[in-house]
Amino acid sequence: MSSEKALSIVVPLYNEEANVRLLYDRIRAACERYGDAFEVLFVDDGSSDGTVPILKQIRQQDPRVRIVKFRKNYGQTAAMAAGFEHARGHNIVSMDGDLQNDPADIPTLLAKLDEGYDVVCGWRKKRKDKFLTRRLPSIVANWIIGRMTGVRIHDNGCSLKAFRGAVIKSVTLYSEMHRFIPAMSTLAGARIAEVVVNHHPRQFGESKYGLNRVWKVALDIVQIKMITGFAVRPALWFGLLSVPATLLGLVALVIAGSQYLAGSAEGWVISSTVAMLLLFLGAHLLSLGIIGELAVNTGDYRPQRPVLPTIRELQNPDGDPRDEKHECHGTDEATR
After folding, report:
1. Residue 160: is its pLDDT beyond 50?
2. Residue 73 in contact with residue 46, Cβ under 8 Å?
3. Residue range 5-230+305-335, CATH number
């Protein structure tokens, strides 16, 4: 492995044979001023078309291109995590491989990063996607994410983002969490900015996303709220959640006592049962907070690395297994 680069471009790909060569040409044109100080990491997410052979041809022509290949399709988040893990750049830019993101916007993102920010998000202000199936769900999701996480940016789903390498490498990515990188990066104290970027209609291939991903995003929103809200002071948050249950349990206990004194056996049984269930719930939530506090205060504070699927990095454009730089099984510990 050579020394650190000034810039790494991370591009997840899945069946993008019609786009990849044109995308490479546009990235090279946008980053040519960096000379040999930039690299392009194409992460193939288990493509079944001719994407990888084309990547190998590009690699033969330009040693600044690196290829990371998954054995099967694991999703965009895993592909981005692998790209970030392998990236050697001081600054890292991520983008989609479908030509809808414009590589010409990369200098704008990096200029904003140079102002002292740690994460710069692209905002597809004039998005060229179908309104009902793509734009409307995105508008609703962005509003909910902003309300729940406190990170109010217009376009969490835009893959065109710029990061300081040290910051993004400390962020744990899994599930569909690539949409929540801005919120997750706040755990590392990142400063976040947003700039308007171009967005083009898809010319080749098919979109990999649709309305079927809505339920996944909804579950991830709840999960990200738990991570960003409870990670620092779990005892406080779970303690607050236990207060209503405990108060209602005490009220039910008083009612049960009055029912007992009034000689209403049925009312006493019902009220006492409700009281015990509510008091148990309050105690349970409080116990979870205490356990969480112990875990936070006694745990390992070293940045957690994402668990990656089985991957390999293709260094030799001819695909000679003897020259495959990395072969990792299970976690990325083997890639270091």
Report:
1. yes
2. yes
3. 3.90.550.10
